[in-house]
Amino acid sequence: MNMNKSSDETTLDYYDTQAQTYAQKDHGAELPASFMRLVRALPSGGHVLDLGSGDGYFSIEFEARGFDVTATDGSAGLAAIASQHLKRPVRVERFDELTDVAAFDGVWAHASIHHAPLDALPDILTRIYRSLKPGGVFHMSVKTGKPAGRDKFDRFYCYPSRADIDAALAAAGDWQDTLFETTHRSGYDGVATDWIILFARKTA
Fold it and tell me: Quick one: which of 109, 98, 131 has its CA closest to 202?
């Protein structure tokens, strides 16, 4: 597997070459409850990092609610589409390239970090922690419950466990209001999988 620190080149190649098709996926009629949880926890007009923004769908929803949004994606193809939707540049950036310090009131990492290798998870969460303002809030959703591997589109998943996430959170810094949820649903590949949904607040 050709890993570039926090990214898998085969996965990025898939999103680059299939960006237009992937961007046409059905997002569903309702926003996930985890999105509204983060919205309620954010200050009015707060600054949100959409980490792994894909086509920009959630960035648009945050902006519609009055938040300032910085969107990033490791795929240049998806970032270009998100830029068109948002009508401004989206940063092409891998997880290990996140260097912002105390810049964001919230970080939304929805179905993105699980594409990184498991041993990169502590560094990624440390970078997220550093990017948050004191008291800032963090959402992450990841596929779980399987050994690391690839799906039918050859996309890599590390499938972190609750223990893996707990260890990475502890390495990153001090958190409060930590909430874990689990669900079982299908992703873009149509295969039903267990998911872990995390909400946490950086200690003020």
Answer: 131
Alpha-carbon distance of 126 to 173, in angstroms, equals: 7
In the block, residue with structure tokens 């929803």: 61
> What token pair was written down for 160?
């972190």
**For 26-66, how does the pLDDT look when each residue is reduced to its tens digit (9 = 90+)?**
777 689 999 999 999 999 999 999 999 999 999 999 999 99
What distances in angstroms separate CA 182 from CA 9, 30, 137, 161, 162, one per listed residue?
Answer: 29, 18, 19, 11, 10
CA nearest neighbour of 199 among 134, 113, 107: 107
> What pTM did the predictor assign?
0.93
Q: What is the DSSP letter of 14?
A: H
In CATH, the architecture of 3-20+31-202 is 3-Layer(aba) Sandwich (3.40)
Two tokens at 39?
């919205």
Q: Where are the domains of the chain?
A: 3-20+31-202
Q: Which ranges of 18-145 would DSSP assign to H, the alpha helix? A: 19-23, 33-41, 57-64, 76-86, 121-131
Q: Note whether 47 and 71 are within 8 A (CB).
A: no
Would you tell me the crossing angle of helices 57-64 and 76-86 to the nearest 10 degrees?
30
